[in-house]
Amino acid sequence: MKKQIAVLLGLALSAASLAYANTSLTVYTALEADQVDAYKAAFQKLNPDIDIRFVRDSTGVITAKLLSEKDHPQADAVWGLAATSLMILKQQGMLQGYTPKGADKLSRPFVDSSKPAQWTGMDVWAATICFNTVEAAKKHLPVPQTWADLTQPVYKGQIVMPHPASSGTGYLDVSAWLQLMGQKQGWAYMDKLHNNIAQYVHSGSKPCSMAASGEYPIGISFEYRGAELKSQGAPIALIFPKEGLGWDLEATAIVKGTKNLAAAQKLADFSASLPAMQLYQKSYAVLAMPGVAQPNPNLPRDYAKRLIKNDFGWAAQNRDAILQEWSRRYESKAAPKS
């Protein structure tokens, strides 16, 4: 009898182990496409019993998808989405509180203030102008030094930027301009800039890629894509406007109601760990964990000091109203959605 019980117990434990070994974690992300595989491999090397199934798109698309699934969530976790988007999900009661192991080693502004935390920051991405020096020379375009410079008539039809409803980069631009200039002057600035915009595209990195290929001489984008393309030999200069740079945090969170909570917590733990930060530093110059980031030869050494004083709470709370007003004014130049 004891032998039979032992056999049955062994079978039960084996079945439980097999079930956990086959845990599939659905993770929504706005990470760049060329980052996803490396991030997945690094996590699964330490957690071979958990398989990540990424659902990837631009920030605005992923945010809208999560909100549309509020009553029937499909994601277990979010890894690499704007903190301003996660703040909206937090307001909607959609996130599972969990403070990752090692979160005390992260800079305080990178961790949600709730206890337990509902999201945990990873890294900073910020606005950058990608300027094709070859194409600009052909068209006799001066090098812009400020955001204000981009409204000069000489740049008419020469600029592409991300659509803020689709792209987190686009939204951090619009939010930053409104914070830097105030509501009245911010919208007046964007009215003038709109005159020079050729197209609003549905990706934060695409404007820089378009500038690098010469499709347009100027792309408002973000520093990771610009630095990467420049290091690959693209004829672009990276310009960091003197007024200051809009920025946001990439962050991780667990979706409330997940049936794979233990696995999602392991993902959150990894995202806040040193191995993950060492992975992030390959792309970003400002990280949640101090002392890990390395200088990037394509970025200024005082890069972190150029970031504006960003009110994330305001940006999250006013996102819908800002996007509605932006669309009313500028949607006519939006690129078709593929």
TrEMBL record:
<protein>
    <submittedName>
        <fullName>Iron(III) transport system substrate-binding protein</fullName>
    </submittedName>
</protein>
<dbReference type="GO" id="GO:0030976">
    <property type="term" value="F:thiamine pyrophosphate binding"/>
</dbReference>
<dbReference type="GO" id="GO:0030975">
    <property type="term" value="F:thiamine binding"/>
</dbReference>
<dbReference type="GO" id="GO:0015888">
    <property type="term" value="P:thiamine transport"/>
</dbReference>
<keyword id="KW-0732">Signal</keyword>
<dbReference type="GO" id="GO:0046872">
    <property type="term" value="F:metal ion binding"/>
</dbReference>
<dbReference type="InterPro" id="IPR017663">
    <property type="entry name" value="ABC_2-AEP-bd"/>
</dbReference>
<keyword id="KW-0408">Iron</keyword>
<feature type="signal peptide">
    <location>
        <begin position="1"/>
        <end position="21"/>
    </location>
</feature>
<feature type="binding site">
    <location>
        <position position="224"/>
    </location>
    <ligand>
        <name>Fe cation</name>
    </ligand>
</feature>
<dbReference type="InterPro" id="IPR026045">
    <property type="entry name" value="Ferric-bd"/>
</dbReference>
<dbReference type="Pfam" id="PF13343">
    <property type="entry name" value="SBP_bac_6"/>
</dbReference>
<keyword id="KW-0479">Metal-binding</keyword>
<dbReference type="GO" id="GO:0030288">
    <property type="term" value="C:outer membrane-bounded periplasmic space"/>
</dbReference>
